[in-house]
Amino acid sequence: MVDNISIIGSHANTRLAETQGIKIDFVNTQLGVAYHRSLQKNTDLIADISYVRTELVISNDTRSASRGDGSGYKLGAGVRHQLSDRIELHSSLDYLSVESGTDTALTVGGRYYFTHRFSAGAGYTTGDFDGITGSLRLNF
Hints:
8-stranded antiparallel β-sheet; Porin
């Protein structure tokens, strides 16, 4: 069963706006655990839970201030399918609850495996914030 559990984490810094030397960034850090179970030979069901920490940072060239710090959790469920030894497709539905706000997001994407341990991924997420993501993964 331990082979089906993994530690997951992410950190994203998104520039929301920049005008007249003032920058507004949204910072999102997550740490959690994921469980996967085989549905068929090349298809897995994935479920995860993470602690979420968010921050809105307003800065200029000389100063930085944090506004809207928050923490909460994320629950996710999805499916991933290995098309070949090198290509994987995935989709997930995530529920986030941070402070008094909630969001439900849908993500679709893919991953290319350079080796068994190292891969790169890309995805599209839609919810309160839509976005394109890129990632690198190193499996230990």
